[in-house]
Amino acid sequence: MVSLLVIFELYRPSSLDDALVFLEKNAPDVKPMAGGTELLVLLRDRAIKPPKYILDLSPLGKELSYVKVENGYVRIGALTTIWELSRSLLHSDVRYAGFVDVFRKFGTMALRFEATIGGNIMTATQYSDYATLLLVYDAGVKLASTRGTRTLPLEEFLVDKRATASRPDELLVEIFFPEPPRSASSAFVKFDRREVLIAGIVTSAVYLVLEGDVIRDVRVSFDMVREKRIPSRARVTESYLRGKRLVEEAVHEVVEKVLPSEMVRTTDWWATAEYRLEMSKVALKRALYKSYERIVRGVV
Questions:
Q1: Residue percentage of the chain with pLDDT more than 90
Q2: What distance lies between CA 245 and its chain's CA centroid?
Q3: Which listed site, 4, 118, 212, 223, has its alpha carbon 20 to 30 Å from 161?
Q4: What beta strand segments (E) does 105-254 contain?
Q5: Beta bridge partners of 163
Q6: Distance of CA 1 to CAs 43, 47, 48, 49, 177, Å?
Q7: Residue 208: phi, psi to the nearest 5?
Q8: Residue 289 reports pLDDT greater than 60
Q9: Which one has a higher pLDDT value, 221 or 8?
Q10: How is 203-227 classified by DSSP, letter by letter?
Q11: Does residue 6 surpass a pLDDT of 80?
């Protein structure tokens, strides 16, 4: 008879220091768990090998749940839930409008109360919507261990599908990015066959900074751009758009010629590569115009 039980030991630390010591002693036989909305499903479905220990991070919520602006940087605690993000400045300031877009497409209300931004990034798949958005903010991550802390650009932290640059004895403790200028905003677009409870056939994010009607800076990301199925920047597309006015001719050129020159989509049971590329074009166009309108109107 095959057992349906997944057996592991649960450890609940009393502090961040306690958690880091436990990791040092037991890595790599331990898996940290924040909200558990991804990890517990993977364990249930036997999609990953059960670890000897689960490190329950929920007791660290007060220490690692925050959104603040400090010394020119926006800093987000890794255990900040999706619901807590929605109650922060990230949902009231037009410079961060893309966070509102992600929230509106993120799971159910129950999931938003449990899932954390750190967990969404650590998942490291093309469905990590906050990673897709944070890439266009030039975000970095802060990792902690008993040896101290280190920082990495988010783009370097995401290595491959379900693979990050985090070491076995490290915890993701913070996400940070430079505070945007007043003439900036963002947008996030997600396509699927319905509007709620979707993984996303195609997702895209745009960060835009205007100087008059000229694009002073722009960053573009997708759920994937080339071979790796992780969120990535479309840098050729960005380079083309910088210094141009957001007019129909420029948008048509970047959507129909520039983006396809750097994007390699894949075919699977869900959708063809050709369909994904076409929807990527639509997503880029919508995100550009949406970001532009938000800057001009000053509202989310």
A1: 81
A2: 28
A3: 4
A4: 140-145, 148-153, 158-160, 163-164, 171-178, 184-191, 202-211, 214-222, 232-233
A5: 160
A6: 19, 20, 21, 19, 51
A7: -130, 135
A8: yes
A9: 221
A10: EEEEEEEEETTEEEEEEEEES-SSS
A11: no
Structure tokens at 189: 């677009």
At residue 79, φ and ψ (nearest 5 deg) are -95, 15
Sequence spans of domains, the chain: 9-54, 62-178, 184-297
Q: What is the CATH number that goes with domain 9-54?
A: 3.30.43.10
Confidence at residue 198, expressed as pLDDT on a 0 to 100 scale: 62
Residues facing 94 on adjacent strands: none
Instruction: Provide the residue type at 88 as one letter.
Output: S
Q: Are 263 and 222 in contact (CB under 8 A)?
A: yes
Answer whether CATH 3.40.50.720 is correct for domain 62-178: no
- Cα gap 157→202, rounded to integer Å: 22
What pLDDT score does 5 carry? 65
For the domain made up of 184-297, the CATH class stated in words is alpha beta
Q: Which two tokens stand for residue 58?
A: 């929920």
Select from 177, 30, 21 the least CA-distant residue to 99.
Answer: 177
Asked if 90 contacts 97 with a C-beta cutoff of 8 angstroms, the reply is: no
> Element (H or E) spanning 87, and its range?
none
Whole-structure pTM value: 0.94
CA gap 276, 282 in Å, rounded? 10
- Pure H helices in the chain: 16-26, 39-44, 61-64, 82-86, 98-104, 109-114, 117-123, 129-136, 154-157, 235-241, 248-253, 259-262, 273-297
Give the residue among 132, 175, 128 at the shortest CA–CA distance from 151. 175
